[in-house]
Design goal:
- With about 300 residues, this protein is an alpha+beta fold.
- Helix content is about 25%, strand content about 25%.
- The chain has helices spanning about 5-10, 15-30, 40-55, 60-65, 115-125, 150-155, 230-235, 290-300, and strands at about 85-90, 90-95, 145-150, 160-165, 170-175, 185, 205-210, 215-220, 220-230, 235-245, 245-250, 260-265, 280-285.
- The strands form five sheets. It has a four-stranded mixed beta sheet with strand order 8-9-13-12. Strands 3-7-6 form a three-stranded mixed beta sheet. It has a two-stranded antiparallel ribbon with strand order 1-2.
- Strand 10 and strand 11 form a beta hairpin.
- Helix 2 (about 15-30) packs antiparallel against helix 3.
- The longest helix has 17 residues, at about 40-55.
- It is rod-shaped, with a radius of gyration of 37 Å.
- It starts with a helix and ends in a 12-residue tail after the last helix.
Length: about 300
């Protein structure tokens, strides 16, 4: 038998992943089921399988590299036919009716520590391991876990976000209105393909919501602080207020104190059912630069009201 490295077309320093990749490509290309039973393809496939049986098992590969076993997997000087084995197209069988479940001259007690050819055949050919007719157990495909971050507005109002999957695909994900930070979106059947006819896995998208510069969320309600001038607080009036759907006018009653909370109905999160409200807390803001006239007025102005009287 030829050197297994030569058969698979890999060098002696090849990694397990490189050996597995080479075997998958050759097995798919030369599998007899794709060649209409051609004898040459059958022989080539047998050679490829025998080579992978050596190189796909860490222990056997080490023994081969050290010269302990030959390219057939037998100890140097060992004649398998003298021990009741005969070569078969897809492995080895015993003349007395016994059967092994590996390729070439291995026996039933052998276990592979690397990648088993049977597992690869199951992936390549729908669960059939060689021509033995044994069907692999169906298995659900792998779930893809994807983290993503959406804006505060997207989470509140809903939208669409494109995400990239580990397999290279890109999909558009619908962000439902009212989504909360830390919630998960599941897309059934959009994960990795199942094994041996099993169902595909799911895509699990863990959503983080970016903070907003002035809105905070409480359920479906929104809260914000709105700076107002001293004049607006004393005299009252209408002032512009930003919302998720645009700017609206808010009426401030006369003599409004800092901390006064006013409600804008329906201007919160547009969640299914009823939208929340926007609660606006007034914060009286003095000019950043000193105003001499305001200072002079305050010094002359005497108020009967003492705001700290309730604390006494």
């Amino acid at each position: 038998m030829r050197d297994p490295y030569e058969v698979l077309g890999v060098n002696r320093s090849a990694s397990e992943a490189e050996i597995k990749k080479a075997f998958r490509a050759l097995a798919k290309k030369h599998h007899p089921d794709t060649k209409g039973g051609d004898q040459a393809a059958q022989k080539r496939f047998q050679e490829i399988s025998a080579a992978y049986d050596i190189l796909g098992d860490r222990e056997k590969r080490a023994k081969f590299d050290s010269g302990a076993i030959d390219a057939s997997g037998s100890p140097r000087g060992f004649d398998p036919r003298a021990h009741g084995y005969e070569e078969t197209p897809f492995g080895s069988g015993r003349r007395d009716g016994g059967r092994d479940y590996h390729f070439t001259w291995t026996n039933q007690g052998d276990t592979a520590e690397g990648f088993r050819a049977e597992d690869i055949f199951s992936d390549l050919f729908g669960g059939l391991s060689g021509r033995r007719g044994s069907r692999a157990q169906t298995r659900k495909g792998e779930d893809f876990a994807i983290p993503t971050t959406v804006s505060f507005e997207e989470a509140a109002r809903g939208g669409t976000r494109r995400v990239s999957l580990p397999n290279g695909d890109e999909i558009d994900v619908k962000i439902p209105a009212g989504l909360k930070d830390g919630q998960q979106i599941r897309l059934k059947g959009r994960g990795a393909a199942g094994r041996a006819g099993g169902p595909a896995g799911d895509v699990l998208i863990s959503v983080s919501v970016a903070p907003h510069p002035w809105f905070t969320r409480d359920g479906n309600d929104l809260k914000m602080d709105l700076p107002v001038t001293l004049q607006e607080a004393v005299r009252g009036g209408r002032v512009p207020v930003p919302t998720l759907t645009g700017t609206v006018q808010l009426t401030i009653p006369p003599n409004a104190n800092s901390g006064t909370v006013l409600r804008l109905k329906g201007k919160g999160v547009a969640a299914p059912g009823a939208a929340g409200d926007l609660y606006v807390r007034l914060v009286v803001a003095l000019p950043e630069k000193p105003d001499p006239e305001l200072k002079s007025f305050i010094e002359k102005w005497q108020a009967d009201y003492d705001p700290r009287s309730k604390l006494r």
